[in-house]
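Async update (no meeting this week)

Hi team, since we skipped the sync, here's where things stand on the single-chain job. The sequence we agreed to prioritize is pasted below, unchanged from the tracker. I ran it this morning and attached the output directly underneath so nobody has to dig for it. Comments welcome in thread, and please keep replies under the output.
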Amino acid sequence: LKRLGLFSRRWKDYSKAITNYERGFALSQDIGYRDGKIECATLIGDVYSDMNNYQMALKYYKKTLSIIRESGYQHKSDYELRKEDILYKIGEMYSNMGDYKEALKAYNKSKYIYGSEDRSRERRAWGGLFPSLADSWQKHMAGIYRNLGETDRDLGNYPEAIENLQKSLEIYKEIEGSYSYFYQENVFSILEDIYKILGDDKKVKEYGMKRKETEKKYKEYYGLKREEDEKISSNIKRNQMYSLFDQGNYFMTENKYDKALDRFHQALEISKYIKDKEMMWVCLTQIGNTYIE
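Output:
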């Protein structure tokens, strides 16, 4: 049900996605599967967020937070990790709704958990074994500081905004690649805006220059033209894959199983080529369902 919801969400069939996630939540509740309830409630919130229905998204994120708080996690780190992730999402929803004071509260709670000594020790331990995890944690922490800085700016707390944005920059500079350049440019842009408000022309010029330099580095590193060409090619193949999959479903309804299998197998080959694991799983599932029919 979670996979079906994901597939519907990808197709922007949000009502169907919500229906599948709600069924998943109900099933998890019936069998006492705590993590299933947490995941499905969070995913429903994510779908409402995609729809820009931030009030409903907030409702489900708060519901998730309530389930987490009521759950008896054996390890404190598991509880804190899930709680921190939801608080971050709650902060984003409040920010999108223009309630910056509540957004700031949520982001600060998220930062407190994520930046705690226990979490820091955990990150150092796991990061040494799995470098990709360390990179992911750095990105997340930088994102917390960036959101705090942006929210403080919207509230007019300029000294606090500058402090948080500088902290995010320090972390982004430790991360390699286009991701780092993209968000450094974003932070420089926010700092440029703050100093414009403060009337500090020297700082405006300084951060304007840094923003332009970082934008240039981002384009050079990423190879913008090559990336655009690859993206176009990938999107064409993805659309072909979805079209073939839809044809397979149509032939299923017409009981033309040989043609359905042909389309599903073609869609499967494209999903392998573009490395879409979720779609590979969906295609294989439909192939199995066709053989059952």
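Quick observations from my side:
The longest helix spans residues 224-253.
The chain has a mean pLDDT of 83.
Reply here if anything looks off.
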